[in-house]
Specification:
Blueprint: H1 9-26, H2 30-46, H3 48-59, H4 63-86, E1 92-95, E2 109-115, E3 119-122, H5 136-144, E4 148-151, H6 157-173, E5 181-184, H7 187-195, E6 201-205, H8 208-220, E7 226-230, E8 237-239, H9 241-260, E9 272-276, H10 282-289, E10 295-296, H11 300-314, E11 320-323, E12 326-329, E13 335-338, E14 340-345, H12 346-351, H13 353-356, E15 364-370, H14 376-383, E16 387-393, H15 395-399, H16 406-419, E17 420-425, E18 464-470, E19 491-494
Parallel strand pairs: 1-19, 3-4, 3-6, 4-5, 6-7, 8-9, 8-16, 9-15, 14-15, 16-17
Antiparallel strand pairs: 1-2, 2-18, 10-13, 11-14, 12-13
Helix pairs in contact: 2-4, 2-6, 3-4, 3-6, 4-5, 9-10, 14-16
Pfam families: Aldedh
Keywords: Oxidoreductase
GO molecular function, one term: aldehyde dehydrogenase (NADP+) activity
Length: about 500
């Protein structure tokens, strides 16, 4: 298949290099691929001081936050190195030839997952390390055996260039093929490369508008490709009276910390916190917010949007300011914000939903005051689309399953499970652990594909596709499917004769 529109020469070279590297990189032994990922992690750690300095200058994020994020990025790479070595992600299944098969003769069948090919990763603005050039999408695709082209984010261009140099040098030093990791810049370049037939998957973290645009491009290609977008989320939180009675001060402090962290520029920030009427948290929240210093927003465009959304929400009928916060615009147009918390009744939220319900990217959140006996389970689908997270603060009585409203809580949990990718009991959603069981995704518009995750080891599955071999000579099979299993990966083997026993386990 050829492209309808030729790429610019520099882009053609980059895409051609990625395509040329695809087969060679897919054939690299997982142990060697893992060593390359660890080499990248080590190189990022070795360049920490330089990279963090560039990132702080370009994004306004604190060095403490950026150092933690760079550590997370290196940990992600090392985690995926272990995933590659383990080989379980290949999902090898072997059905031995069986002349006594229940449905007639069964041929020898061997199935596993292979890399999809070159991947285009669109970087995020708010995580200049963990969701950017060397972030989780890149780590997962590289671990899967896919060449990666990263579209740099305009919010941190110099950091993107330098990070890409560190990554590419480490991969080359580990003996990986040329063209395995490359960087492009500019919106037009990203769209042009996304349309190229040699690109086999795309990933994105950013706004609903931009993500939908890119997802539609990926879907409308002559040969549509998978596109994994992490888009918008308001992450509702539900607090019971029992939880407030037991830990009001801790709830208020945790809430403000979660809203104010990184100036509220996190996809998991709690945008709406449902609390019972007469909750009595106003003073504690205001006190927790008062000492929080101003924090620069990532760029001028985000600052302008934050001012507009904040003013619109505060001006909505029925909204009460709990912690006023503020936003200061400097001479360069950058915004410096402190957290703003407002409150509104559940009825007024419904009435003002067209203004209130959209995500606010910045340090602002809404307390939603619900009356006793309110059917919160029914309110969730009425008010919310899909979210990355949903959180419950229940108190010890309800969490032990002894409260009078246990059935109502079960209904709420059931509904939240249908509307979010991660359901938390206690705590706050802004902590996203880099660990095998993490799910960082959810129904639209949280993500464009609700069966995927962008954090955790399951993220590798986005960049793989299954293929089966039937009656193939063992010597011609890929290494993971051979009887000798030279890669030493897990193999699920269905031996001849077992079909006659199918169903017996249910007796």
């Amino acid at each position: 298949m050829t492209n309808a529109e030729p790429l610019a020469p520099e882009l053609e070279t980059i895409v051609a290099n990625a395509a040329a590297a695809s087969d060679a990189y897919a054939a690299v032994n997982p142990v060697e691929r893992a060593k390359a990922l660890v080499a990248v992690a080590d190189a990022l750690d070795a360049s920490r001081e330089e990279l963090v300095s560039i990132a702080a200058s370009e994004t306004g994020l604190t060095e403490a936050r950026l150092n933690g994020e760079l550590t997370r990025t290196a940990v992600q790479l090392r985690l995926f190195a272990d995933v590659a070595v383990d080989g379980g992600y290949l999902d090898v299944r072997i059905d031995e030839a069986d002349t006594a098969f229940a449905l007639g003769v069964r041929p020898d069948l061997r199935r596993y997952h292979i890399p999809v090919g070159p991947v285009l990763n669109f970087s995020a603005s708010n995580f200049p390390f963990a969701f950017s050039v060397a972030g989780g999408d890149s780590a997962a695709a590289l671990a899967a055996g896919c060449p990666v082209i990263v579209k740099a984010h305009s919010g941190h261009p110099q950091l993107s260039i330098r990070t890409a140099e560190v990554v590419a040098e480490a991969l080359a030093g580990a003996g990986m093929p040329d063209g395995v990791f490359q960087l492009i810049a500019g919106q037009a370049a990203g769209i042009a490369v996304l349309k190229d037939a040699r690109i086999k998957a795309g990933s994105f973290t950013g706004s609903i508008y931009a993500g939908r645009l890119l997802a539609d491009i990926a879907a409308s290609r002559p040969a549509p490709i998978r596109f994994y977008g992490e888009l918008g989320s308001v992450n509702p939180v539900f607090v019971t009276k029992a939880a407030i009675d037991e830990q009001a001060a801790e709830l208020a402090a945790g809430y403000v910390t979660s809203v104010a962290g990184s100036a509220g520029q996190l996809c998991t920030k709690p945008g709406f916190v449902f609390v019972p009427e007469a909750h009595g948290l106003d003073e504690a929240i205001a006190s927790a917010a008062a000492p929080v210093g101003e924090h620069r927003l990532l760029n001028q465009k985000i600052a302008k949007s934050y001012v507009e959304r904040r003013d619109a929400i505060i001006g909505t009928a029925g909204v009460r300011v709990v912690a006023e916060g503020g936003i200061r615009i400097d001479d360069e147009g950058h915004g410096w914000a402190t957290p703003t918390i407002v409150a509104v009744s559940l009825d007024n939220l419904r009435a003002g939903r067209e203004t209130l319900m959209d995500e606010v990217f910045g340090p602002m959140s809404v307390l939603v005051e619900y009356p006793a006996g309110a059917d919160l389970a029914a309110a969730v689908p009425e008010l919310f689309e899909g979210n990355l997270t949903a959180t419950l603060h229940l108190g010890t009585v309800e969490s032990a399953g002894e409260g009078a409203d246990v059935e109502a809580l079960r209904d709420l949990i059931r509904v939240l499970t249908q509307h979010a990718g991660r359901v938390l009991f206690g705590g706050w959603p802004t902590g996203v652990a880099v660990t095998p069981a993490m799910q960082h995704g959810g129904p639209w518009p949280a993500t464009s594909n609700d069966s995927s995750t962008s954090v955790g080891t399951a993220a590798i599955s986005r960049f793989l596709r299954p293929v089966a071999y039937q009656s193939a000579p063992d010597a011609l099979l890929p290494e993971p499917l051979r009887t000798s299993n030279p890669w030493n990966v897990p193999q699920a083997i269905a031996p001849a004769g077992e079909s006659t026993q199918w169903g017996s386990s249910a007796k």
